[in-house]
Known about the structure:
Layout: H1 40-60, H2 74-85, H3 91-98, H4 113-119, H5 123-133, H6 148-154, H7 158-174, H8 180-198, H9 200-252, H10 259-265
Helix pairs in contact: 1-9, 2-9, 5-6, 5-8, 7-8
Amino acid sequence: MGLFNFFKKSERGSSSETPDSTATPWDSLGAEPFQGDSAAEAAQKNLKRQGDKIIAAYYHGINALGQPQATVSEEERAGFYDALTHDQFDDTAQSHMLQAIALPSGVPGRENYQKVFDQINDPQSLTIINYIGQLGGGKSQPLTADNLPGFLQACPTPVEFAPRATEMIRIMKADPNIPPLRTAEYEDKLDPIQQSIYGKRYEYYQALQELKEQAYGQARTRANAEAAAQRMSDMQSLQAPASAERAQQELQDNPYASQEMRDFYDPSARR
């Protein structure tokens, strides 16, 4: 498949990061490189902390993302879950919120794209970037750090990246000429790419996905409970006549049933 026969690996460069003295509190979220997985418990606590800040930002403004902690009431959490499940906080709104978090490349006007490019400068990662960002790179025109602004314009957050990556993997899996192992290798690149390009935006995107799972999980549980209650109500409303009809039929089929029993279950015999 032509899309995935990629060009030669380009030379790596290096550049130093210049701190920005004008950064706002939430700009600093993207100042540090993405950290690898820590202990499961600490990671879960961090995910919860970031999720609370997302909910707080939804209700109280984007600056809540830059605070160390956020206190969220149960009412706010329930309302946010409803907003997720009823598309009141859709992909566009989610992307807008995530774009408030600075990227590892730096704040606008002081970007260091080479630093980021060095982390993804391998053939598979560049193939993914080229395809998802529709950058038009190829053997005769390999990608460089100068292509990253175009990629970020097309995919400023993981919200835009995710569906394009899913479609790319779907196409690869459907192509009989691409071995499954090769497709798996590309899938394995998706997380590291997003960690390198989006940094904290990717972390908060993951926290948002966790909130979605909780929201839709609670919605399914509530729907299942309501459906079960409705089925029980329907059964109760039908149970008496169904039982009477069944008893009447059984008596009619039973030659040993007394006439009194037959009259009791036969409405036409009652006066």
